[in-house]
What we know:
The chain is mainly beta. It is built from 11 helices and 91 strands. Strands 12, 15, 16, 19, 20 and 21 form a 6-stranded mixed sheet that branches. Strands 23, 26, 27, 30, 31 and 34 form a 6-stranded mixed sheet that branches. A 5-stranded mixed sheet has the order 2-10-9-5-6, with no helix packed on it. A hairpin with a 6-residue loop joins strand 19 (211-217) and strand 20. Helix 4 crosses helix 10. The chain is globular and about 125 Å long. The two termini are 45 Å apart.
Amino acid sequence: MAARGARRLLGSLWIALLLGQPDPAGAAARSSSQSPAGSTVRTFTPFYFLVEPVDTLSVRGAFIILNCSAYCEPSPKIEWKKDGTFLNLVSDDRRQLLPDGSLLINSVVHSKHNKPDEGYYQCVATVESLGTIVSRTAKLTVAGLPRFTSQPESTSVYRGNSIILNCEVNADLVPFVKWEQDRQPLFLDDRIFTLPSGALIISNVTDGDGGLYRCVIESGGSPKYSDEAELKVLPDPESPLNLVFLRQPSSLTKVTGQSAVFPCVTAGFPTPVVRWMKNEEELTIEGSEKILLLAGGSLEIIDITEDDAGTYACIVDNGNETIEAQADLTVQAPPEFLKQPDNIYAHESMDIVFECEVTGKPTPTVKWIKNGDMVIPSDYFKIVKEHNLQVLGLVKSDEGFYQCIAENDVGNAQAGAQLIILEHDVAIPTLPPTSLTSATTDHLAPATTGPLPSAPRDVVASLVSTRFIKLTWRTPASDPHGDNLTYTVFYTKEGINRERVENTSHPGEMQVTIQNLMPETVYVFRVVAQNKHGPGESSVPLKVATQPEVQLPGPAPNIRAYANSPTSITVTWDTPLSGNGEIQNYKLYYMEKGTDNEQDVDVGGHSYTINGLKKYTEYSFRVVAYNKHGPGVSTQDVVVQTLSDVPSAAPQNLSLEVRNSKSIMIHWQPPPAGTHNGQITGYKIRYRKASRKSEVTESIGGTQLFQLIEGLERGTEYSFRVAALTSNGTGPATDWISAETFESDLDETRVPEVPSSLHVRPLVTSIVVSWTPPENQNIVVRGYAIGYGIGSPHAQTIKVDYKQRYYTIENLDPSSHYVITLKAFNNVGEGIPLYESAVTRPHTVPDPSPMMPPVGVQASILSHDTIRITWADNSLPKNQKITDARYYTVRWKTNIPANTKYKTANTTTLSYLVTSLKPNTLYEFSVMVTKGRRSSTWSMTAHGTTFELVPTSPPKDVTVVSKEGKPRTIIVNWQPPSEANGKITGYIIYYSTDVNAEIHDWVIEPVVGNRLTHQIQELTLDTPYYFKIQARNSKGMGPMSEAVQFRTPKALGSSGKGSRPLDIGPDYKPPMSGSNSPHGSPTSPLDSNMLLVIIVSVGVITIVIVVIVAVFCTRRTTSHQKKKRAACKSVNGSHKYKGNSKDVKPPDLWIHHERLELKPIDKSPDPNPIMTDTPIPRNSQDITPVDNSMDSNIHQRRNSYRGHESEDSMSTLAGRRGMRPKMMMPFDSQPPQPVISAHPIHSLDNPHHHFHSGSLASPTRSYLHHQVNPWPIGTSMSHSDRANSTESVRNTPSTDTMPASSSQTCCADHQEPESATASYLANAQEEDSGQSLPTAHVRPSHPLKSFAVPAVPPTSSTYDPALPSTPLLTQQASNHPVHSVKTASIGTLGRTRPPMPVVVPSAPDVQETTRMLEDSERESNYEPDELTKEMAHLEGLMKDLNAITTA
């Protein structure tokens, strides 16, 4: 907000500068204090969260930090809420507030019945006397105890097939699951990977994959290991095997940004091929960075978006048969703001609206918070347009911070704004924002000092109805006429201090009608008059009661409601007995019993069925009838309950307890609340022997939460599951869990005896413990407790199952003395311990020696997305032939320091083709070799940059704004394409007044280089234009942007439709006059004086140099040279002095070197019969006059270029510019050839002095010029000049209004121009290579009247047809009214375009040129004494200039 205020201040300063105010600072000061009393406008205070808490997963015993930081001056106070209640952190020894506001929780507590740390947390920031804001809510989840729901089982697999090993745990434990092979960590890659459930998939199985597998949960504390499963690898089968699914894809629900894996694991022989389809269309996986096909056929989708939702089908085919499975992907999106609320200034009694637009899936719900408290809708706080908050009749206490909170199932977000209520004598400092209603905008007029009106007289209610009141009054006594007074009516309900406001529609009006009132209600009204100085006194309050409403409908009789199903209820009613007119519709209100969230629906008939209700839940219903006067009387509430249904969830926490050899006790908890869907009438227990083909036995019990199953067999494993029952049926059952009965009925009245033996086998970092059970087998043993530690067995304790006979204690220190104890336990307690000690072995076992990394890694670029990586392996024989089972891993990433994520691929050859790369991107590659368990380090990196590709996206954020003060000039801004695929070398702007016109009919504006802004001048006022932009790199043109419409303003000072005011940043400096356009711009007197001083200084220096050169030349000239010089001077000035030679005065020797331009003209690489190059003459003798035949040839060539078009057939855009030259510039990248040409300065008398002459000395094949600054080499163009040096070629004014002038300068010696030309050429080449001026620009000169130095015309030369040229002479407007037209076309746009006309003035006829030469020789001979007079004239001129500067 501070930056926005600074921009407003700079904007006011700039406007003051443009209007020529002498004291802009004073204007800015006045704008900040606009009331007579000098009250200042309070500014909005930046108050927002720098960091908000995020959802966190933790484990028991860990410490976590929930981050939160808020910014404000002064610093805010931070507090925390958990589940909506403030935490008392002062007396809490586990939770504490960090200095930055974050919450630290030490040693997270989590157990089966005590979960104090799990829940929803919210950060609350408060600044006294300012307000309160709340953060988004973050969920803290604590992973439960490590427990396996399924464990891996031993199996076998054929070589080359795929296998899946199950290890399923709770969802919150999945991040902590790892796999081991032969008790060593398993290295995962594209062939071996885990599913999100924790299961392990091995595809393309090799012999090395055989072994013992187990999964481990490392969630803090001791790791939890699963059972070990042996995987045997079988040789290839001799006969085909049927295709079967080992794991099919299952439907998923994911949040945007997450990844999804659809498993599709099959077995069969021959090895099958897997392909995927989405929504019955083939899924393109190759080359996609978003969709990956994992080894074995599973599909992974990265960075999910809503477009990825759909049905995915996995189709498996091995040539003999095909099988298929499919699953759905549902994508959800957290809330995201499309429009956030804006800060608002307002006065008391105003109505305001905070706007808030959100999107998300599911559709988010929106609630509003004011200073940390929920906003409850009422008569004055209303939710409008679904999400916006409307506050009616503001009072001072409404001030503060308002936040829009959006929530859905997958997330929540908040955005806030501040409301400041100003005193009535302080004007709102900005224009009326959209958040103010139309009834309150009159408060925004600034007040000035002066007499205020008195109170309006005789305020009466002339018309009182049930829902509106009309007030009338007389003018105040202080202003009997009152023609210029406006009136404001304040009103409120009696007893309510919150006033509403209504304004009169125009000055002088003395009545107003207040609408939307309540019947039979007393309102208090007062009226205030306002003049240009501000509001005056208030009238005496007037109390008026509205009429009772007797025309509204009565209650609808016979309202009845009955349940149709578990989720729907039908409500019926009859027509009201007292309808008071035609009933238009009914509104049915309903809400869940026990809640306050009432919903409604409009109904046209006398019944309605509401669907989507909760099962077995009570709802209340009422009906209100509406007629043309409004809502009638509501019916009484009727309550009905939806029907019951089967439970929608299984019972929880199922556990088994083996009592003896024939009975097992089962315990469980009811299904979660809200899923019963009725009264639980009992539970169904199903059990069976663990063998798969055994029969299932059912047992239905009551509502108790336990059941003893008796009559079981000894030493047999049984599986159990439980389901809840209602009167409608059986709900879903739990998963099967198993327990084994005892071999015999054992004694559990005492603790077990000591184990009969204990053996330990120490290794380097582990000890293998084995034991035998107690000798007395008649006492129940439910498990064994193993304690161990260095010197003491009480440091760590591990409990194992009673069937286990060995255990490996891992993660021990080498060469350390450990004491180990073993105790058997049952439900009574632990038995007598058995002790043993062991010393771990020293760490002397050498690791397998690493392999040598590959060498000579090279990256060969093949295309824009493919690079071949090759390398050599020194551990191979000289022929580099691979004979063993080694493989190579190639990794690569973009060469960006922030990017640390590698992609990898395996190969068994010494090269690899990396595809799907990004164009024009530098990648780094490295390789490692793996052989069995041995691997090398990564090789040295190789780098390669992919080739460029044409841009695949258009320029972004194209905006068009009108240039301030120049309604016919617009500025086009844009951003580079998001997919430039190379260095942008230029842009092409297309614009037209017809958006449906063919693209070759649009006007083209080329922009060279990577500039992101361009000016277009001389547009037609009040005309809609459409703009498109196309980017180009070395590979070609990209796609065009969407058309952007812009209407030019109607007149000077107005802005075009759709344009926005220029946002003047704090670093913006106003440009100097004439530095940004030919028109110049107003500036301050100080800047004008400084500019005048600079120009006069440059002029004085130039005059001195010219005088010295003139004196030097005078001494060396002969009479013949004098004649030539006189002829040279008279080329352009003879018509002024002809017949008046006696009054001839020496011409002004002011040399306009600022008009010189170096023009690099690109030459075509191939000859073109139509477009020929123009040789550039070195001196005046190289200029060939054009005879009549040449002139006729030019006309013929022009007609042939234009084809069948007539000379008058010009587009509407060309027509609005008259005969201004239009040139189309090719963009082919050719080396520039600099050419020197001098441009004449038009005097101030010329009505077109605002424009500068375009470059008419252009060849018939024209290229876009880099016009180089012709100042000496030591003088460089400033940055601001470069930034503003944008000038379109077609902006040259019509040549028929220009005075005749020569583009050649005269010199006394013929050798000097040649050397000067060479030096300029060298300078041009230097500057052209070092700068990137996109378009040509000529500095406009200071508007001082001066004369150009005339040029010497050629006297005798012949025209050489082998070297076609264009004479560098401009024609006089009166001689040739019909211009010669040449054309050039752009051949790089991918299609044939009709050539656009290029207007080039013709040279004078030979006869006229000869006559001009004769006149100049006869009239322009100066002698030395005339030169002395000329010097005296120059001295007088310098005195005049000094007088101007000192004034």
